[in-house]
Write a structure and sequence with these properties.
0% strand; mainly alpha; 93% helix; Helix Hairpins; 2 helices
Protein backbone atom coordinates (compact mmCIF):
# COMPACT_ATOMS: atom_id res chain seq x y z
CA UNK A 1 0.00 0.00 0.00
CA UNK A 2 1.35 3.46 -0.89
CA UNK A 3 2.23 5.82 1.88
CA UNK A 4 -0.36 8.55 2.02
CA UNK A 5 0.85 12.14 1.91
CA UNK A 6 0.41 14.23 5.02
CA UNK A 7 -2.62 16.43 4.27
CA UNK A 8 -1.17 19.50 6.01
CA UNK A 9 2.30 19.25 4.44
CA UNK A 10 1.90 22.53 2.55
CA UNK A 11 0.70 24.31 5.68
CA UNK A 12 3.72 22.97 7.55
CA UNK A 13 6.07 24.23 4.83
CA UNK A 14 4.45 27.68 4.91
CA UNK A 15 4.82 27.82 8.68
CA UNK A 16 8.47 26.71 8.45
CA UNK A 17 9.07 29.53 5.96
CA UNK A 18 7.47 31.97 8.38
CA UNK A 19 9.83 30.76 11.12
CA UNK A 20 12.80 31.35 8.81
CA UNK A 21 11.51 34.84 8.02
CA UNK A 22 11.01 35.54 11.73
CA UNK A 23 14.57 34.35 12.46
CA UNK A 24 15.89 36.74 9.81
CA UNK A 25 13.85 39.55 11.34
CA UNK A 26 15.31 38.81 14.79
CA UNK A 27 18.82 38.91 13.32
CA UNK A 28 17.99 42.22 11.65
CA UNK A 29 16.61 43.64 14.91
CA UNK A 30 19.76 42.55 16.76
CA UNK A 31 21.90 44.38 14.21
CA UNK A 32 19.70 47.47 14.51
CA UNK A 33 20.02 47.37 18.30
CA UNK A 34 23.79 47.04 18.03
CA UNK A 35 23.91 50.05 15.69
CA UNK A 36 21.79 52.11 18.05
CA UNK A 37 23.97 51.15 21.01
CA UNK A 38 27.07 52.12 19.02
CA UNK A 39 25.50 55.49 18.20
CA UNK A 40 24.73 55.91 21.90
CA UNK A 41 28.37 55.30 22.77
CA UNK A 42 29.40 57.91 20.21
CA UNK A 43 27.03 60.61 21.49
CA UNK A 44 27.97 59.80 25.08
CA UNK A 45 31.63 60.20 24.17
CA UNK A 46 30.88 63.56 22.52
CA UNK A 47 28.91 64.64 25.59
CA UNK A 48 31.67 63.49 27.93
CA UNK A 49 34.19 65.48 25.90
CA UNK A 50 32.06 68.63 26.24
CA UNK A 51 31.51 67.89 29.94
CA UNK A 52 35.24 67.56 30.48
CA UNK A 53 35.80 70.85 28.64
CA UNK A 54 33.10 72.47 30.81
CA UNK A 55 34.66 71.26 34.07
CA UNK A 56 38.11 72.30 32.84
CA UNK A 57 36.85 75.83 32.18
CA UNK A 58 35.17 75.99 35.60
CA UNK A 59 38.41 74.84 37.23
CA UNK A 60 40.33 77.35 35.14
CA UNK A 61 38.04 80.15 36.30
CA UNK A 62 38.47 79.13 39.93
CA UNK A 63 42.22 79.12 39.46
CA UNK A 64 42.04 82.61 37.96
CA UNK A 65 40.01 83.75 40.98
CA UNK A 66 42.75 82.46 43.24
CA UNK A 67 45.39 84.25 41.17
CA UNK A 68 43.36 87.42 40.92
CA UNK A 69 41.27 88.24 37.88
CA UNK A 70 39.81 91.44 36.47
CA UNK A 71 36.13 92.09 36.04
CA UNK A 72 36.16 91.96 32.20
CA UNK A 73 38.00 88.62 32.31
CA UNK A 74 35.36 87.27 34.72
CA UNK A 75 32.58 88.37 32.38
CA UNK A 76 34.32 86.83 29.35
CA UNK A 77 34.96 83.57 31.20
CA UNK A 78 31.35 83.40 32.44
CA UNK A 79 30.07 84.02 28.89
CA UNK A 80 32.27 81.28 27.51
CA UNK A 81 31.28 78.88 30.29
CA UNK A 82 27.62 79.65 29.56
CA UNK A 83 28.16 78.80 25.87
CA UNK A 84 29.92 75.56 26.81
CA UNK A 85 27.09 74.76 29.25
CA UNK A 86 24.51 75.26 26.49
CA UNK A 87 26.52 72.98 24.23
CA UNK A 88 26.63 70.44 27.06
CA UNK A 89 22.83 70.59 27.35
CA UNK A 90 22.52 70.01 23.59
CA UNK A 91 24.82 67.00 23.83
CA UNK A 92 22.88 65.69 26.83
CA UNK A 93 19.66 65.97 24.81
CA UNK A 94 21.29 63.99 21.99
CA UNK A 95 22.23 61.29 24.52
CA UNK A 96 18.66 61.15 25.84
CA UNK A 97 17.21 60.90 22.33
CA UNK A 98 19.66 58.13 21.47
CA UNK A 99 18.75 56.27 24.66
CA UNK A 100 15.14 56.41 23.50
CA UNK A 101 16.21 54.97 20.14
CA UNK A 102 18.00 52.14 21.94
CA UNK A 103 14.83 51.43 23.95
CA UNK A 104 12.75 51.40 20.76
CA UNK A 105 15.23 48.97 19.18
CA UNK A 106 15.15 46.76 22.30
CA UNK A 107 11.34 46.66 22.27
CA UNK A 108 11.35 45.90 18.57
CA UNK A 109 13.79 43.04 19.15
CA UNK A 110 11.70 41.69 22.02
CA UNK A 111 8.57 41.77 19.86
CA UNK A 112 10.39 39.98 17.03
CA UNK A 113 11.59 37.32 19.48
CA UNK A 114 8.06 36.78 20.80
CA UNK A 115 6.74 36.42 17.26
CA UNK A 116 9.51 33.94 16.47
CA UNK A 117 8.66 31.89 19.57
CA UNK A 118 4.98 31.87 18.57
CA UNK A 119 5.78 30.76 15.03
CA UNK A 120 8.05 28.00 16.35
CA UNK A 121 5.23 26.79 18.59
CA UNK A 122 2.94 26.60 15.57
CA UNK A 123 5.49 24.53 13.65
CA UNK A 124 6.03 22.27 16.66
CA UNK A 125 2.28 21.70 16.99
CA UNK A 126 2.03 20.78 13.33
CA UNK A 127 5.00 18.43 13.62
CA UNK A 128 3.38 16.70 16.60
CA UNK A 129 0.13 16.49 14.63
CA UNK A 130 2.02 14.99 11.69
CA UNK A 131 3.60 12.35 13.96
CA UNK A 132 0.19 11.46 15.40
CA UNK A 133 -1.27 11.36 11.91
CA UNK A 134 1.51 9.01 10.75
CA UNK A 135 0.89 6.74 13.75
CA UNK A 136 -2.83 6.60 12.98
CA UNK A 137 -2.10 6.02 9.31
CA UNK A 138 0.29 3.17 10.16
CA UNK A 139 -2.25 1.64 12.58
CA UNK A 140 -5.00 1.85 9.95
CA UNK A 141 -2.74 0.21 7.39
CA UNK A 142 -1.77 -2.56 9.83
CA UNK A 143 -5.45 -3.13 10.68
CA UNK A 144 -6.36 -3.36 7.00
CA UNK A 145 -3.47 -5.73 6.36
CA UNK A 146 -4.59 -7.89 9.31
CA UNK A 147 -8.14 -7.99 7.95
CA UNK A 148 -6.82 -8.92 4.50
CA UNK A 149 -4.65 -11.64 6.03
CA UNK A 150 -7.67 -12.98 7.93
CA UNK A 151 -9.71 -13.00 4.73
CA UNK A 152 -6.91 -14.78 2.86
CA UNK A 153 -6.65 -17.28 5.70
CA UNK A 154 -10.42 -17.86 5.62
CA UNK A 155 -10.39 -18.34 1.85
CA UNK A 156 -7.52 -20.83 2.09
CA UNK A 157 -9.28 -22.65 4.92
CA UNK A 158 -12.56 -22.80 3.01
CA UNK A 159 -10.73 -24.03 -0.08
CA UNK A 160 -9.07 -26.83 1.92
CA UNK A 161 -12.41 -27.75 3.48
CA UNK A 162 -14.03 -27.97 0.05
CA UNK A 163 -11.17 -30.07 -1.26
CA UNK A 164 -11.62 -32.48 1.66
CA UNK A 165 -15.34 -32.72 0.99
CA UNK A 166 -14.83 -33.48 -2.70
Amino acid sequence: MDKAAYPLAQVLEVKKKRVEDAEKLVEQRIKELDREKEKLKEVEAARDKVLQHFTDKIDQLRQKFDEGITSPEIIDSKRYIKIVHEKLQVEEEKVNKQKEQVEVAEKSLELARKELAQKRKEVDKLRMHREEWWKEERNDRERKEAIEQDEIGNVIHLKKMREKLN
